[in-house]
Protein: Glycoside hydrolase family 43 protein
Amino acid sequence: MKKLKYSLAILIAMVLFSACAKNDVKHSGNPLFKSPLTADPSVLVHNDTLYLFTGSDEQELGKDGFLMKKWYIFSTPDMVNWTNHGVKLQVEDFEWAAANAFAGHCVENHGKFWWYVPMVHNDSTARVNEGFAIGVAVANHPLGPYKDASGKPIIADTTKNSIVLNIDPTVYVDDDKQVYMLWGSWNEARIVKLKDNMTEVDGPVETVHAKNFFEAPWIHKRNDTYYLSYAAHYPSTTEYSTSKSISGPWEYQGVINDTLPNSPTNHQAIINFKGNDYFIYHNAGLPDGGPFRRSVCIDKLEYDENGKIKKVVRTTTGVPEVK
Ligand code: FUB
Structure:
């Protein structure tokens, strides 16, 4: 009897200890930052560090419309300790651009960092539709300094088979080193090959057919499958399709993230960092947040045994510290 009581006491102590240890694990928290307001995340991993590139919502509380002039970079070695490196790119850095620093995407290639960004063109003859064009800035380090890589946009309203709203570029360097740029909004998605110099198209702009696509494409590859995730419908959920080729055909798979309270836009990035999969998105979760005052969040992304992405469980605790 004495022995049983003793074992029971040890068991209880072990359970209590493991519960405390669990509570001791630090978490990122969501939204990640109380200030500045951040939106439209893009991420890359370099030298064991995760770099987060975001847009910046500057609209006043209670006013409508996006007011976005600059992009920030943040970094973390462990998902919990974040450094705000400040504004690293803005509309003024591009002579050809006038306004609207919408969603960009930074990728590494040839030892350099290429930050693709959409903005409204300042040349009225180039503004045939909504006037957005996509350019690229380059740097030798993820944190910059960045400078316009070619002095002109890669895609504009005047590009053959471009779309009404040329925004939300995502660039993917494939295993055979071929570079692709996808972009799109208002239910239209496009893909084009880029030359090795990362600044010019290499062939025609093709139409991408992905069920329910609205905007915000993001490509990632897992094993031999390409995953194309995107904002679907408006107000947007995040949904995805898969293919064995980046050129498609894309097979619809389902919803990753439900619509967000108080933000019709839903813009995601997906990455594996130190063995963990992450879903990075924005919400309107700060006390003075709203559709034009968004904030970046991070939650766990999980696959089932068939490689299907499970629906994201959004949290306010965020993700645990990684070593
Ligand atoms: O932030 C401006 C626009 O809203 C982005 O380009 C879209 O993806 C949506 O998030």
Observations:
- The chain has one helix and 20 strands.
- Residues 2-24 form the longest helix (23 residues).
- The chain has a mean pLDDT of 94.
- Residues 39-40, 55, 66, 68, 102-103, 167-168, 215-216, 265, 267 surround beta-L-arabinofuranose (CB under 6 Å).
